[in-house]
Structures are given as structure tokens and as C-alpha cells.
Design a protein that fits this description.
Layout lengths: L8 H5 L3 H13 L3 H15 L4 E3 L12 E6 L6 H11 L7 E3 L6 H6 E6 L5 E6 L3 E6 L2 H8 L6 H9 L4 E2 L10 E2 L5 E8 L5 H4 L10 E5 L30 H10 L16 E3 L3 H15 L11 H16 L8 H66 L6 E2 H7 L8 H11 L3 E6 L6 E5 L3
Helix pairs in contact: 2-3, 3-4, 11-12, 12-14, 13-14
Length: about 450
């Protein structure tokens, strides 16, 4: 069967009623449809229980729907407005904790805590306090500032969280030992990124963090001048139709075990996973990507997580459209591939803007530096001219002339780089000294204070 392919934005936005609604809602609110869709998908992600996993396309390990979104735009370009409109469009995210991450150690604390047991209170057990969180970072620089603190584990923790890996680590003090198991938490992150601050996230290319983001721009160059009316009806997404949360007892059992493999029947009894099933096109794309990975044939290293991100997008688009279904269709996959393609375009355009900004700043700095050097040289020449004129006036009162190389030697440090000779020539042009004999060069010329 030939794989479906979306050709252009118009076909994408009209492919489904909920996509059309998001597009029209964005236009009515004067925000970017792509930015609004990305933030809506992050909110859908936050609402999905953590035991809902993606079918493995490589090997046999189920994946995660955890989604990170980067909204591109300058100050006042509507990043915050987009989040507010998405919240109005999809307000129910099942009581997900909303927070700003400030440390790697703080992220496990969003999901886990330790409770004391026994009369002496020495023994503690780990418990799940909330299986989901939506992290909002209004500006990426606040994330970068936290990450640059000495010993910070924020970036590695975020990278692990986006991949759905276990969080936390061993601590000597058991009370502070918080570990969050794989498939035991759901996390989504939304951050605003100004073009001139793009380096904050792109500097982490080696950790794989920027490759994991879904990118969207706040600009909408096709927006009409006259604001259209709000679309009729509602989005039509029913969060209550999503798979139900696992009972607290199941989550606590998973957190205590630390891993599904350590649970009774490897978790199938108390914490079974709910798997989203993917179409053949997804497996075909994964196979192609695997070959390119093994042969180091990927054209852009920033697309290293292309398949993993497309899997998440397809799963979230499927749940947005059919929250009571666990099947990702060929159309879901085609739409997700188009979303990823546009995401990569937004990312690459932002990188180009950032490079242009860097070049302009370097050019300005070079021009300012050259101007400053010129001003400094002019001030030095004026000082040497004044000193040389004063020296000549006091050492040659009869105006008989002093040979140039003697003047230069007498002026000491001022004689470096021929500055005394340049001063004498400038004074001659100004009519303040005369050439009264000697040879053809400044060094051999006899110089005297002008009698004119």
C-alpha cells in the first residue's frame, strides 16, 4: 500500500475537523496555528496516563509520549498568549502539576515523595504524589541559567524525562532518595525561545536535547488583516474518553519496586501497560531511519530523533482525534510526518536567524573596535605632536634644526612604530614646524619650530 503524504499546510489543516478548529481558533485569537497546535499537543500529552505507551518500532521496548515543545518568537510575539489560548481550548489536563523546573533534583520531586513508617519514623517508603506534570518555561534563558549552576543535573534529567527514562539517583540519606520509574510518570514541557537566545538550547546538541523538541513559530505570515470570527462549536476533544489512570495502589507498587521488571509478573498483574498500535508506514520509516543511523547517513544530525518524535506526534494526534482508541492510523502517521517536517523547517529557520544575528553582532563589534582603535591612535598622535613641538622649542631655540632620528631617540617611548616621524610630518602640514635642511627622509631631515 502506498504511504499517505500531506502536501502543504492547507491540506493538513483541512484533513480533520479538530485540526481545522485549532487553525480557525488560532486565527480568531491572532496567534500562530502551528504554535497553538504544538502547545495543545503538549497539553494532550500531560493528560494521557503514563501507563499508555507507544508500540516499539525498534526492538521490543515500548516508548513514551512525553513531549517537549519550543515556541519560537521574540519578546511580545505571542508565546504567552499562545499558552493561554491553548489552556482555554483544552483546560482539563487531569490535575497535572504545573511548574517551572529549577533543578534536576526537583523534577523527580514533582512525581514522588517519601513517607515515614514505623513508630521510630526511621523507615520510609516511596509514593507517587502525582503521575503527571506540565512544565512551563516562559523563556529558555531561565532554563539555561539553572542549567549553568555548578553541579546542575537539570539538562541530563530533562533529556532523560523526554525519553521516558527512570529519573533520580541514589542518595545516602534515604529520606532524600527519590526515584521515578520508567512508565511511571507523564511529563510535557513548553518553553519560549527568542532567536538571539537559541544558543541556550542548541549548545546542548551533544546531549540530544534540541533534537527531542517539537518546534513551532509564533509568526503566521498568511494571517488575514481582518480578524475572522471564532469558529462555531467546540474542539470536540473529550479528555474523559482517554484511558483511565492507574489506581494509586498500582502506581505506588511500581514506585516501590523501582521498575516494572521487579514487580510481580513483571508488572502485568498490578501495572500493565496500554500500548498504542502503529501502522505499517511507521515501521517502514523506522527501518529506513535505522539503516541511515547504522551507516551514519543522516543528512542533518539535528534529525537524529526524527522517528521517535514522529511516533509521539502521531500518537497524540490519534488521541486528540479519537481519545477512546488505541490505534494510530496511516493518516495519523502522514499528518505526524508533516508536523515534523514543519517543525524542522521552523527549527532551521531559527538557526539561520541566530547565525545572522551573530554575524551582525560580530560586524558591529568589529566596526566599533576599529573606530575605537582609530580614535585612540588619533589621540596618541595629538599627544606626541604636542610633546615633540615642546621638545623642539626648548632644545632648538635658535631654530637651526635638529635631525629627525635624534628627535625620535630623545622622545623615548613615543618613538615606537615611527610615531615621532608621523607627528613631525603632521606638524609640517599644519605649518607648525619647518624643514630647514638635511636629507629626503623624516629621519634625516632637519626639523625646527616654524617661524611663520
Amino acid at each position: 500500500m502506498m504511504a499517505l503524504k500531506i502536501n502543504g499546510d492547507a491540506e493538513f489543516w483541512h484533513a480533520r475537523s479538530e485540526l481545522t478548529y485549532i487553525h480557525d481558533y488560532a486565527r480568531a485569537c491572532q496567534v500562530s496555528p502551528w504554535a497553538l497546535l504544538s502547545v495543545v499537543l503538549a497539553r494532550v500529552c500531560a493528560a494521557v496516563p503514563p501507563h499508555v505507551a507507544t508500540q516499539p518500532l525498534y526492538g521490543n521496548a515500548p516508548g513514551t509520549l512525553n513531549l517537549f515543545v519550543a515556541v519560537l518568537g521574540g519578546s511580545g510575539d505571542g508565546k504567552g498568549l499562545t499558552e493561554r489560548m491553548a489552556r482555554a481550548l483544552l483546560p482539563d489536563i487531569r490535575n497535572a502539576t504545573t511548574a517551572l523546573p529549577v533543578s534536576g533534583e526537583g523534577i523527580p520531586a514533582l512525581f514522588a515523595t517519601r513517607e515515614t513508617q514505623g513508630e521510630d519514623g526511621r523507615k520510609t517508603v516511596i509514593r507517587c504524589v502525582n503521575p503527571r506534570a506540565l512544565l512551563s518555561v516562559p523563556e529558555i534563558t531561565s532554563l539555561g541559567g539553572s542549567a549553568k549552576r555548578l553541579g546542575s543535573t537539570l539538562i541530563p534529567t530533562l533529556t532523560s524525562a523526554c525519553s521516558g527514562e527512570a529519573l533520580g539517583g541514589f542518595n545516602k540519606n534515604e529520606a532524600n532518595r527519590l526515584t521515578v520509574p520508567e512508565h511511571g510518570y507523564r511529563i510535557a514541557l513548553i518553553t519560549g525561545v527568542q532567536p538571539h537566545n537559541l544558543n541556550v538550547i542548541m549548545d546542548e546538541e551533544g546531549t540530544g536535547l534540541p533534537q527531542r523538541f517539537l518546534w513551532a513559530d509564533t509568526a503566521d505570515y498568511d494571517a488575514p488583516e481582518k480578524v475572522p470570527p471564532m469558529p462555531a462549536g467546540r474542539l470536540g476533544f473529550d479528555v474523559s474518553a482517554l484511558p483511565e489512570d492507574m489506581p494509586n495502589s498500582g502506581l505506588d507498587a511500581l514506585y516501590e519496586a523501582g521498575d516494572r521488571w521487579r514487580m510481580i509478573d513483571h508488572g502485568e498483574a498490578n501495572y500493565p501497560l496500554t500500548i498504542l498500535r502503529y501502522p505499517q508506514s511507521a515501521f517502514t520509516a523506522a527501518e529506513k531511519d535505522g539503516w541511515e543511523r547504522l551507516h551514519r547517513a543522516r543528512q542533518n544530525p539535528l534529525d537524529a530523533h526524527c522517528i521517535g518524535l514522529t511516533v509521539k506526534i502521531a500518537g497524540l494526534l490519534a488521541l486528540l482525534s479519537r481519545p477512546d482508541s488505541l490505534t494510530v492510523t496511516e493518516e495519523d502517521w502522514a499528518l505526524a510526518e508533516y508536523v515534523y517536517r514543519r517543525s524542522a523547517e521552523f527549527r532551521d529557520e531559527a538557526i539561520q536567524q541566530f547565525e545572522d544575528i551573530k554575524r551582525n553582532l560580530k560586524a558591529q563589534a568589529y566596526a566599533l573596535d576599529s573606530e575605537a582603535r582609530g580614535e585612540a591612535d588619533a589621540r596618541m598622535l595629538d599627544r606626541i605632536k604636542a610633546g615633540t613641538l615642546k621638545w623642539l622649542d626648548s632644545h632648538d631655540p635658535g631654530r637651526e634644526g635638529v635631525v629627525g632620528h635624534e628627535i625620535s631617540r630623545a622622545r623615548g617611548r613615543d618613538s615606537k612604530h615611527g610615531m615621532v616621524y608621523a607627528a613631525l610630518e603632521s606638524l609640517y602640514v599644519e605649518g607648525k614646524v619647518d624643514k630647514v635642511g638635511g636629507g629626503p627622509t623624516p629621519q634625516s631631515t632637519l626639523w625646527a619650530v616654524s617661524t611663520r
